[in-house]
Amino acid sequence: MLPVIAVMNLIVGTLVGVSGIAGFLLPIVFTGYLGMDLSLSLALSFISFLTSGIIGSYRYQKQGQMDLKFGVLVGIGSIAGAVLGVKLNFMIPLTTAKMFLYLVVLASGLSILVKKDKPETASSGDSSAALPSGSPVYTGLLGNKPFVLLFGFITGAICALSGAGGPILVMPILVTLGMPVRIAVGVSLFDSIFIALPACVGYLSNCPKEGLLVLCLISFVCQAIGVFFGAGQAGRINVRVLKKGVAVFSIAIAVYMIIGLI
User: What is the pTM of this model?
Assistant: First the structure.
């Protein structure tokens, strides 16, 4: 079990470092391939999401591609939503919880596969374009604080319940609502910290304690190594091809697990 957890965190961490996605693969591999207890699987997954969220959002902040004020507002809603999501996971039958996880992974894979990447410009996604000093003024729903809090609450609950890391759900919605791509990625990584913290605490409280510290440390260290390595390779890899590969693999494994559960 330990080698698989280490290798998966290295692989997924690298994919996250390169493309910002793929964290949602961890819980389905842990529950499906390893047959791991669902609470333990989600606890280790959210430890990895917390690690990649801290590293990734720090990088985006240093590059000037983070709207910290907006991210905190979303995060406040996400904390409350994540607490609810964990509670809901404990309340529903195990088979239902697993099915929800597999369906979220399937939907995530499909969304990556069909989504067309827009050409990046200085205003919408150029990695060299920094956020102007001070937080931008958003119009529409992004400028509505009650909506942003509710958005954080709902996405936090879904992610904590299903085991999705956050960026796979939060980032596309923010872009659709009008936020520049790179800023949306930074905000979604930052938001994943707020989702992962209560999720980690909630799921860890329901895990067997024997050997738990070792599993947590392996997840943390290997995920960090993978993210740092992937970030260094980002400019050398065709991200579009990588994303499509992740999408196809996600769809295949999700369909396989759903059929097995049925």
Answer: 0.80
